[in-house]
Design goal:
Elements lengths: L1 H20 L13 H32 L17 H30 L8 E8 L2 E6 L35 E3 L2 E4 L3 E8 L4 E5 L4 E5 L5 E6 L4 E7 L11 E7 L1 H8 L3 H14 L7
Parallel strand pairs: 1-5, 4-10
Antiparallel strand pairs: 1-2, 2-3, 5-8, 6-7, 6-9, 9-10
Helix pairs in contact: 1-2, 2-3
The structure holds copper (II) ion (CU).
Copper (II) ion binds next to loops.
Length: 283
């Protein structure tokens, strides 16, 4: 029985490794400037942990094989305290590997979150709520109208609490679809009205929590025009699965044109654009 179990462990290990090596299920084609660096870092991490996983599972199988129950009654179990030296060695190796991976990966992470967005970035306010996405655009004047949580009124479709008495709010647009320019830095100001949500577009290689009471600023540059699925990646309640939308990456002229439109024209044009671009296919 011990031998069978050992072989099963090795087969599961082999199949798990093959799932990754085959490359059949992998990330969708990336569409952001930082994606190659992130993918490279991910690959290094997966190779390192893949080697550790394989070594540990092969070792586990070998132990199961070697110390299997036999028919020899004299073959009794004995107590072993283990080896402190070995414990120290593999703890130190693990710590060094994990800290090194963390240090290597933090530059991409930090560049998108801890530094200010470059000058000339296109800003969008993102307000998440159970269970929808709201995107607030500054409009032609480039200035966001004042918002106030007290003015939020879902029944009047004022999802972000826009203050209509503020002149800067007159040309603002609010949609449930995100539209951003291609090849230009985009800054998102992420907020949540109720619980923690998570902004995730797999092709962007970007994922960030939206936390009630906080405004989290992030920035990135998308470099491929198209329509992409945007999901909430945080289990945020019963209808979490419905909390999805699209992100349109558009030529800058198209974005400029959208900014000059009235709210009605803006919504109509967004619907047209949504219909125009097909979703990327996942092979
Ligand atoms: Cu959510």
């Amino acid at each position: 029985m011990g031998r069978v179990l050992a072989v099963i462990i090795w087969i599961i290990t082999l199949l798990s490794v093959l799932l990754f090596v085959s490359g059949k299920w992998w990330f969708p084609t990336p569409i952001s400037e930082h994606a190659p660096a992130l993918d490279r870092q991910f690959m290094i991490t997966i190779v390192v942990v893949g080697i550790a996983f394989t070594a540990a599972q092969v070792g586990l199988g070998w132990m199961v094989w070697k110390y299997r129950a036999t028919s020899n009654a004299a073959d009794r179990a004995t107590y072993s305290h283990g080896s402190n030296r070995l414990e120290v060695i593999w703890t130190v190796i693990t710590a060094v590997v994990f800290i090194a991976l963390g240090v290597m990966g933090q530059s991409v992470w930090a560049s998108l979150r801890l530094h200010d967005a470059p000058a000339g970035s296109y800003s969008v306010e993102v307000v998440a709520q159970q269970f929808q996405w709201n995107f607030h655009y500054a409009g032609k004047d480039g200035k966001f109208g004042r918002t106030d949580p007290k003015l939020i009124d879902d029944s009047a479709l004022n999802f972000v609490g826009l203050d209509s008495s503020d002149p800067a709010a007159a040309d603002d647009g609010v949609t449930s679809t995100l539209a951003i320019p291609v090849n230009r830095p985009v800054e998102l100001r992420l907020r949540s009205k109720d619980v923690i949500h998570n902004f995730w577009v797999p092709q962007l290689r970007f994922k960030q929590d939206l936390v009630p009471g906080m405004e989290i600023k992030v920035h990135f540059t998308a470099n491929k025009v198209g329509k992409y699925e945007l999901a909430c990646a945080e289990l945020c309640g019963q209808l979490h699965f419905k909390m999805k939308s699209y992100m349109l990456v558009l030529p800058d002229e198209e974005i400029q044109a959208l900014q000059g439109m009235s709210q009605d024209q803006f919504q109509a044009r967004m619907a047209e654009l949504l219909a125009k671009y097909p979703l990327p296919t996942y092979e």
